[in-house]
Write a structure and sequence with these properties.
With 274 residues, the protein is an alpha/beta fold. It has a single domain, classed as Rossmann fold. The chain is 34% helix and 24% strand. It is built from eleven helices and ten strands. The strands form two sheets. A six-stranded mixed β-sheet has the order 6-7-8-3-9-10, sandwiched between helices. The chain has a four-stranded antiparallel β-sheet with strand order 2-1-4-5. A hairpin with a 2-residue loop joins strand 9 and strand 10.
Length: 274
Amino acid sequence: MTERTSGQQPTAAEERGDSIIQFPASETVLTTESLGVLYDGTSAVEDITLGIPRNRVVAFIGPSGCGKSTLLRAFNRMNDLIPGARVVGRALYHGKDLYDPDVDPVEVRRRIGMVFQKPNPFPKSIYDNVAFGLRINGYQGSIEERVERSLRAAALWDEVKHRLRESALGLSGGQQQRLCIARALAVQPEILLMDEPASALDPIATSRIEDLIDELKRDYTIVIVTHNMQQAARVSDYTAFLYLGKLIEYGETDRLFTNPKEERTEQYITGRFG
């Protein structure tokens, strides 16, 4: 976090005090400072200040339209691709502002990968899907080894190792989503963003994705957007509740779900609105 100059007023996030958890800088991979995103001048999220700790799962929850996905996309500059989008405030990755003019957004997306709501495999073979990012980034090592390693990390290798040259479109929905995870992992990101990764899947496939998330956090930092509060409670270490584009509360998942500090958080998790 940057130091505040004398006489400078605290932000709304700082005024909330104990509703926002703080992490030591040495444990923090990504930090936002009064981050906001506007679409054609209309605010979608505003004054978001939080830290994402290393090798943990952070869940964003809140009603539809509260800004969860917008905030997630700000972490790897996906909002750059939306006409009329503008980001204010700062998003710091290891202390470097991701929106500085000298930062390459392509490199940002390599280090901070993303898995989307619906599986989106390319109309290519299973192998070529995973190898795609390696090739366009000019990877000089063994692509075959990296493909296998990535598929193993995504718990998919044993299911597809004999059909790597077949179309990825022939996989089931759950397999396609794990393939997309493998594709993201192939370029070795540090952070993996997941936007409702199981919302289009059946309960069995959802359970496999959740088990995979638990395994992946040993090597990656994961931020997940979910409408499913039970899923957030199962998979995440920390949870942020957003409402109307603002961060209402952020803390350890167990504490937030059992003893929320903010009334609106309690109302949401008990089903009184949303």
